[in-house]
Amino acid sequence: MGCVALSNNSLSGKFPSFLQNLTTVFFLDLSWNKFSGRLPMWIGSLTSLRVIRLSHNKFFGSIPMNITNLPCLQYMDLNNNKISGSLPIYLSNLKFMTNTSMMGCYYSAELWNPHLNSVSTVLKGQELNYGSIYRVLQTRMMSIDLSSNNLIGEIPEEIVFLDDLVNLNLSRNHLSGVVPNKIGEMQSLESLDLSRNMLSGEIPASLSNLTFLSYMDLSYNNLTGRIPSGSQLDTLYAEYPSMYIGNTGLCGHPLQNNCSSEGHAPKQGGLGRTEGGHGIQFFYLGLGCGFVVGTWMAFGVLMFKRSWRIACFRLSDKLCDKVYVLVAVWARQT
């Protein structure tokens, strides 16, 4: 059996144990079910596996280390589960996702079967149908989707060794630390989604080297500093203007938030205003308070000081008389 496609069947229980003996399976799809429990260590014995789709289940625990025993794995989708722990360094040992030889990985005649399921993946922020299984394998569509899980810790620098990876989606986790400085070495990347984590630090300048990058989302993190320059990133921002949103510490082109001389965004207070904005705000606040206080003081004096009140009214009468005379004289002259 080369293909196991059991998606959208409301299946439950643990990872199916009967799969352990299917060492020739190259396509495994258990997505959109109700499976739970940990991913088994024996998954690494399915050495012919090329595509594994386990998304939208309730699997928990860490990603088993034995998954790196799959020499031909090119497509791994575990999104929308409860996978926890740190992002494993050993994922960089998925050799087929690097610019290495395809030796030992071949196409089966079964791939031409038109009844086999098509493959979809989350690209450019939405789930897109990538076509038949044959097309995925023929074009070497390299993808890792671990979005919407409970991953913590830093993104390991070793992830950049997967330089043949086309899609990397780590969004909606609890990842912290910085974006790997050498991420620009992943020259095949077309889609990068690190949104809705707790990443900090500056955006690596090497991102501007990704000439094939057609989608990037870094929104809703804690990133700071000046945004790297480059025509590629400018083009992406023009198409996806929300790619930096939710990072109040970012500054510089193409954002309207200018950087300080140190290359950082101006400090912001609880209302999200810059320090200069606060000064203007306090000035007008003081002006308004002074006007109100002064008016009430004058009103209070006139109310309780009879002699001042009479003098004030006499003064106003004299002013009115003078204005009346001036207007009358001007009217006769014209």
UniProtKB/TrEMBL annotation:
It holds the Pfam family LRR_1. The keyword Glycoprotein applies. GO terms for cellular component: membrane. GO terms for biological process: brassinosteroid mediated signaling pathway. Keywords: Brassinosteroid signaling pathway, Glycoprotein, Leucine-rich repeat, Membrane, Repeat, Signal, Transmembrane, Transmembrane helix. It is found in: Membrane. Signal peptide: none annotated. It is a single-pass type I membrane protein. Belongs to the RLP family. This is Uncharacterized protein. The lineage of its organism: Eukaryota, Viridiplantae, Streptophyta, Embryophyta, Tracheophyta.
